[in-house]
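Box 4.2: Ligand-aware structure prediction
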Amino acid sequence: MRIAVIGAGASGIAAGVNLLNAGYRDFEIFEKAEDVGGTWRDNVYPGVACDVPSHLYRFSFAPKADWTMEYAPGAEIHSYMSQVAADKGLASHIHFGVEILRLEFDGAGWIVTTSRGGEGRFDAVISAMGVLHKEVYPDIPGRDTFVGQSFHSSKWPVKASLDGKRVAIIGTGSTAVQILPAILDQVKSAAMFMRTPQWVFPLVNKPIPEEKKAAFTREPKRLSNLYAFLGERLNRGLAASVVGLNEEGLREIREACERNLQENVADLELREKLTPDYQVGCKRLVVSSAFYPAIQRENAELITDGIAAIEPTGIRTEDGRLHAFDVIVYATGFDPFNFHRPMKIIGRDGLDLDEVWSESAQALRSVMAPGFPNLFFIGGPNSPIGNFSFLLTAETQIGYIMGLLAEIGRESPGKIEPRADVTEAYNRAIEVSIKNTIWVTGGCNSWYFDPSGKVASWPWSYERFEADLRKPDKSEYILS
Ligand code: N01
């Protein structure tokens, strides 16, 4: 069986390692950039770190005893990913600088067209394109007229120097909240433009002492116990809370966020501005103990007036004031529903995935769509992207995909696709359950909403995700 994997980020690496472990040798990983690591290669903004505990953010096949911090900096995760790819023997399978432009099913397999102009034929394709990488710029008039430097948080220029500059940050999500505290010592001033306040869960990031790292190296059992403990805490805590399965947990998270605000922001007017009017967990929870102290520093400012326009020298707010800046940072997030575009994907009988998913992306168990045989998605529709550690999600989906691959057989591979009726029933069940989640009931807007206004995440528990993707049930698929 010849397999194409698209993307050499976390999920592409995990797919490659799983393919090798299962004895597949004839697979190619196509990566449009020049390095592995996906998100952790792209996001190099000051302060970038993972807010999932380090010891939980690892591949099951590559435990790491020597994380430097309890919440790892982005660069350390990137080098971990590079190391894993090298150690596991993926180098000879990865083609860098090759973007996939088109996938077309020809009745038996997939014709894959690359940016290099070539075509290849594969029996199966695994999409490992990630979810949060199509950056979103705000639709603000005059954006192109700004004469200073401006860039999206995920496109931070390597040579950007903020020394002594007046910097604007548009946005108040997880990214902006990491950037602000990290740049204040360097810049002349930084202003955060906040359209909607966020609940901020306190979290102090501490270095991991050398003795602890040595103990994890000496006794791998301690490391796996810690992994199990952290996983249990996340999955039973926040992840269960947001889908309506742990009211007590949600209350505790809310109280911690409220305490964080009350104890760390003394000025009542500022506190009022920073207080959300929706339920905690509705937007993806922001975690930071550095943000509130940072926003109160002398050279920081919180601007809550709406943005009217961007002008050559700065940002004009709706109250008529012009705020002058040297640099504008767009920490305005990503479009999770366009992860596969502009790639063209043509399935069976000329079906165009763009059209099939024009309103809502739907899949069976988040990994396969009817009409697209032997095309498997990691991080596909309704993946739990905000709930669990993405690495765990990806590995669970890969395990299930390996089960589907086994069904088609290696020697003269057949075809597999999900039944349309089963996929529809599955998505109806999602629609019913999603209504009970905090993303829908919490009274906020967020990137969880797809263009049709539906929330597209995983509405159930981690246990359900694991159970649903443990092993394919052949009766849900058409095999030929
Ligand atoms: O993006 P976001 P992000 N005018 O979409 C604002 C993951 N992540 O890059 O709330 C003014 O959360 C927008 O305002 P509003 C994590 O899953 C993880 O911060 O829509 N403001 C919001 O404040 C996260 O959830 C880590 O009113 C405008 C902000 O821009 C996801 O990535 C670290 C605007 C966008 O926030 C995305 O986070 C970082 C406008 N026209 C990120 N348009 C980890 O630690 C948008 N905004 C693992």
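In the box above, the bound molecule is 3-acetylpyridine adenine dinucleotide. The chain has two domains: 3-134+335-479, 143-205+229-330.
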